[in-house]
Automatic annotation (TrEMBL):
The keyword Protein biosynthesis applies. One of its GO terms (cellular component) is cytosol. Residues 166-252 form the Translation elongation factor EF1B beta/delta subunit guanine nucleotide exchange domain. This is Elongation factor 1-delta. Residues 109-140 are annotated as: Disordered. Pfam families: EF-1_beta_acid, EF1_GNE. Gene3D superfamilies: 3.30.70.60. SUPFAM superfamilies: eEF-1beta-like (SSF54984). It comes from Darwinula stevensoni. The lineage of its organism: Eukaryota, Metazoa, Ecdysozoa, Arthropoda, Crustacea. Residues 70-97 form a coiled coil.
Length: 252
């Protein structure tokens, strides 16, 4: 190469130490990888240590609770045993009292039976001594009292007024036409009088075509006045009355 060509080489980009730089770069990345690996291992060890500590605490807490439960169970069992002993003692006392009551009841029953037997014997002896019994006198006295009560009841019943059966009867009295004198008709109807008949209110009720009927109420004693007889008496006024119907009939 001539000296004249050197200026040209000066302007070309040539990396004469490339291998050195590549080796340095490789060492740098290896160092970073080692640091990262060490950091990960340290973190994993820390997590394992924490897990072991937590497990140890859980086991300790479980042992403590088991001990407490065992103590509570022992206390409850002791209380139950004491209660059972008290109940057994009470049952024994009740059985003893029941036995005393049974013995007392048997003794009382025996005494009562003896007293009844003695009383029966005494009454039998008295009955044997009473040769002239008083049964006849007692029967006569009872019969007299019975007759007096029957007589008093009959007298009291006779003083009560007898119940009279009555009925409320409403009659419809129909005229021949609209020219019939309705006032005269009512007057004639009320003229019918007898024992057990009582006339009540009356009114005119429209019938048809300007014709009105006389509706009159009455109270009759069933044993003294017949409704059929009353209808016949009203229909006897032939000049005024066409017909008579029963509008209502009610027992009082």
């Amino acid at each position: 190469m001539s000296v004249e060509g050197l200026p040209v080489l000066v302007h070309e980009k040539v990396w004469t130490n490339r291998a050195k730089y590549e080796d340095a770069e490789m060492k740098y990345y290896e160092m970073l990888a080692k640091q990262r690996s060490g950091s990960s291992m340290g973190s994993l060890a820390s997590e394992i240590a924490k897990a072991r500590e937590s497990l140890q605490q859980s086991l300790t807490l479980a042992d403590t609770r088991a001990a407490q439960f065992s103590k509570e169970a022992e206390d409850r069992i002791g209380k139950l045993e004491n209660t059972v002993q008290l109940l057994m003692k009470r049952v024994g006392e009740l059985e003893a009292q029941l036995a005393k009551v049974s013995i007392s009841g048997i003794a009382t029953s025996t005494v009562s039976t003896q007293s009844t037997s003695e009383g029966g014997k005494k009454e039998e002896e008295e009955d044997d001594i009473d040769l002239f019994g008083s049964d006849d006198e007692e029967d006569a006295e009872a019969e007299r009292i019975k007759e007096e009560r029957l007589a008093a009841y009959a007298a009291k019943k006779s003083k009560k007024p007898a119940l009279i059966a009555k009925s409320n009867v409403i009659l419809d009295v129909k005229p021949w036409d609209d020219e019939t004198d309705m006032a005269e008709m009512e007057k004639q109807v009320r003229s019918i009088q007898c024992d057990g008949l009582l006339w009540g209110a009356a009114k005119l009720v429209p019938l048809a075509y300007g014709i009105k009927k006389l509706q009159i109420s009455s109270v009759v004693e069933d044993d003294k006045v017949s409704v059929d007889w009353l209808q016949e008496q009203i229909e006897a006024f032939e000049e005024l009355v066409q017909s008579v119907d029963i509008a209502a009939f009610n027992k009082i």
